[in-house]
Design a protein that fits this description.
Elements (H helix, E strand, L loop, with lengths): L1 E6 L4 H5 L10 E2 L2 E2 H11 L4 E6 L4 H13 L4 E5 L5 H8 L8 E5 L2 E3 L1 H12 L5 E6 L9 E4 L5 E5 L8 E9 L1 H12 L5 H10 L4 E6 L2 E3 L3 H15 L2
Parallel strand pairs: 1-4, 1-6, 4-5, 8-12
Antiparallel strand pairs: 2-3, 6-11, 7-13, 8-11, 9-10, 9-11
Helix pairs in contact: 6-7
Length: 237
């Protein structure tokens, strides 16, 4: 299975709040966020990890070059500045075909044991896609996920609806047919990952929700302390 990391944002909010490091290099639990993801993916037996970074941040480029020399999993790097996460995913997509894939953004913090269960469940399933979801809401603009009782996803919403018990966690396990829908979305001038997810439902893709207890995004300086505490509780168990 292939893995992909979207790391092409500027991290402007962190910079404005006094965080000197580019977002991928911000350390959580003594480990750069991008290093943490690659380590976790390697433990899942990743056949390759594809990463997209933007063309403006030299520190990130240098760090990735060093990673390529020392990690044990093949690391493919795309350097490109894109207008949205959906376009970043599209830039990575040519290297993700031919099997199953898992995609996430670089600042997603989750419990490693839950991620292992998520990957194993997807690998054993026959769905087109499986999305990480959580009932924990700590996001400025959450994407609400409505589900049937069997956890089939029925819709994605900007505001709460009665059958939306979860929000999107920003971790996506997908198959080749979902990449075909991505191509259609880009061709139609669409943007934003949430619109892509809506398109998956509209095209009849069978999507399953997989609940995590908590998923954090590191968007603000204050989120770093939250993520540190969250990772610390995992390591202490």
């Amino acid at each position: 299975m292939k893995y992909a990391i979207i790391s092409a944002g500027e991290g402007s909010r962190l910079a404005q709040e006094g965080v000197a490091l580019p977002k991928p290099l911000v350390e959580i639990g003594g480990e750069a966020m991008i290093d943490r993801l690659i380590r976790i993916f390697s433990r899942q037996g990743a056949e390759e990890v594809a990463v997209i970074i933007n063309n403006e941040v030299e520190a990130t480029k240098s760090h990735i070059q060093q990673l390529q020399q020392r990690v044990h999993v093949p690391l493919r790097v795309v350097v490109q500045t894109t207008p949205s996460s959906m376009h970043s995913f599209h830039a990575l997509s040519p290297w993700l075909r031919g099997g199953r894939l898992c995609l996430t953004t670089v600042d997603t913090i989750f419990r490693e044991e839950e991620f292992t269960d998520f990957i194993r469940t997807f690998e054993q399933s026959d769905v087109d896609g499986m999305m990480a979801v959580t009932g924990y809401v700590d996001d400025e603009k959450p994407l609400y996920v409505s589900t049937a009782p069997n956890f089939d996803i029925t819709g994605f919403h900007d505001t709460p609806v009665p059958d939306a018990r979860f929000i999107s966690g920003g971790i996506y396990c997908l198959t080749d047919p979902c990449l075909d829908v991505l191509e259609e979305c880009v061709a139609q001038g669409m943007s934003r990952m949430r619109n892509y997810q809506r398109s998956l439902v509209a095209r009849g893709m069978r999507l399953k929700a997989f609940p995590f207890s908590k998923i954090l995004d590191v968007d603000h300086a204050s989120d770093i302390a939250k993520a540190e505490a969250f990772v610390h509780t995992q390591s202490s168990h």
